[in-house]
Amino acid sequence: MGAAVTGRGLTAEGCIGVFDSDVGGLTVLDECLARLPAEDFVYYGDTAHFPYGDKNVEYLRERSMRAATWLVEQGAKTVVVACNTATAAALAHLQTHLDVPVIGVMTAEAHAAAYTTRNRRVGLLATVATVQSGAYERMILAHDAGVEVTSVACPRLAPAIQRGEPYDETIVEMVREYTAPLREARVDTAILGCTHYPMVSRLLRRNLPDVTLITSGEELARELRESLRRKGLLRSAGREGTYRFACSGDPGAFRALGSRYLQMPLGDVARVPLDDPVPAGRA
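Given the sequence above, the corresponding structure tokens read:
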């Protein structure tokens, strides 16, 4: 049995580590910055290995472990998996092998969807890997076994958003195609099961009128704050938290696209490939 990957002593002064396959998780970070302004954040985007949505479970666990381990080494008191695909494939693995709290974007969304729906018909838009995992369905049905879940894999949507392409007729038609099964199922609540999708929320609302959209950022930020409070790790108010960024790919590209997501300058972005062997962790 290997040694667990441990933090540097869990105190309120530690930072919050956040990772995603690229810049999509910045939609989650944005909500966390607003709800937890006194906290320090370190964000890692595994941009050299984007997208995660078409990768197998073993690969996703390996890349997630690399990112999470690096964040713990940076002094993270909590690790946030700001990627739905990585949460579905690797959350339990990370929680087993890390000695810091690890939370993912899916649990809070599933809970919110189950308690928001009025007609007990919930839709899910997500990557192929997330849909195939069945994780959302299991979580929703754990809250209400009578809910009907309609899941739609959207393999082309996140890459199109990531490329920063103009929202032209191609994107419009793509959203129309992916939302059609949810309209046919007459869902009244839909989970945006990828952190990129809030970037096209206006298009989604146009195609899903009168449907409540559940996004990961707002729900996770609320869960994160409560988790830190319960564990005595919440920073005292009265200070302005810091944030810094790293990625495995091109820092310039990350900075340019990330600034568009956060609507503010990112400053320096470190390039951290994370190609070294991963610590064994607990067996």
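The two ends are 5 Å apart (CA to CA). Try to locate this feature in the token string yourself.
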